[in-house]
Write a structure and sequence with these properties.
By secondary structure, the protein is mostly helical. Helices cover about 80% and strands about 0% of the residues.
């Protein structure tokens, strides 16, 4: 139970610190920040899947599952937001051709 408590405390601290740091990022830096968080989320998913490969108590499996879902949500949302922001920088001719160039 001590390991579970420690994991929850680390999770809560990481969440609080991360939230505080991200809120201080200027809007013009959000796209590069989103790319970095996508990479971090991919590492979280790989680590979580590696943890799920070994037998663990049900509470730990649930927390690992929450980590996978949260990281996947971050990746999908990050790509969606990055895509929308990149569309803002395309010229009218490029957007009409649809060739992605």
């Amino acid at each position: 139970m001590t390991d579970l408590f420690f994991a929850v405390v680390v999770f809560a601290a990481a969440f609080a610190i991360g939230d505080r740091l991200i809120r201080r990022v200027p809007p013009m830096l959000h796209t590069p920040l989103m790319s970095m968080t996508n990479a971090i989320s991919a590492v979280v998913i790989l680590g979580a899947l590696a943890l799920l490969a070994t037998p663990r108590p049900m509470a730990q499996q649930l927390l690992i599952g929450v980590a996978v879902v949260a990281a996947a949500f971050n990746i999908v949302g990050g790509f969606a937001i990055t895509g929308r922001m990149l569309k803002m920088f395309k010229s009218e001719g490029t957007a009409q051709r649809g060739d992605g160039a």
